[in-house]
Structure formats: C-alpha cells, structure tokens
Design brief:
disordered N terminus, 110 residues, elongated, 4 helices
Length: 110
C-alpha cells in the first residue's frame, strides 16, 4: 500500500509519489552542487575555516536526510511524522520535501 493511500487526507492534500520524488531529486542535486562548490573552495588553496567546515557538514547531513526520505518514499512511510505518525502537511513537504516530522514535533525536538 502506498503512503498516499494510508492517510485519511484527500488526494488534493497530499503530494503524489511522483511529485515527491521530483522534489527530492531537485533537493539532492542542489545540495550536491553546493557541496562541490564548497569542496572546490577548499581545494583551491583557500584556508578552510570553521564556516566552510560547518557548511560542508550541513550539506552532508541534508544529503543523508534526502536519501532517508527516498527510503521512506519507497517504504511507504513518506509524508508521515516519525514522532506522532500523523500526516505532515503538504505545505511543509513542498518547502522541505525531506522533512521527517511535522512542525509541532520538530519544535519539541529542539
């Protein structure tokens, strides 16, 4: 059973699997391009400072989160909060397609 049919939300309130996959692929490609740019800056002999290191770590974490979202999409749990299991609002998934949690649960997590 797909994640689209496991929720009581109407089809208009949910991203289709195809749309979700496209958004995730776009996010992954964007983060990979950003990571390459950071690595090129480091490789060009410019001193790697704390900001570049933090930026690189954040991009790597985003890529891990994106890959985890692909796994949730394939496994049928994409679009459901990992904490409360309620559907994540489509607006949040449109903005952050690799979101693991709904906003209230994310805020509680810190």
């Amino acid at each position: 059973m797909s994640w689209e049919t496991t929720s009581s939300a109407s089809a208009a309130e949910r991203l289709s699997a195809h749309d979700a996959r496209q958004r995730l692929e776009h996010e992954r490609n964007s983060r990979l391009a950003q990571l390459r740019a950071v690595q090129e800056t480091e490789d060009s002999g410019q001193e790697a400072d704390d900001l570049l290191s933090a930026q690189k770590n954040a991009l790597k974490q985003a890529l891990k989160d994106i890959e985890a979202a692909f796994a949730r999409l394939d496994g049928g749990s994409y679009g459901n909060c990992e904490d409360c299991a309620k559907p994540i609002p489509v607006e949040r998934l449109e903005i952050l397609p690799y979101a693991r949690c709904c906003v209230p649960c994310q805020q509680r997590a810190g």
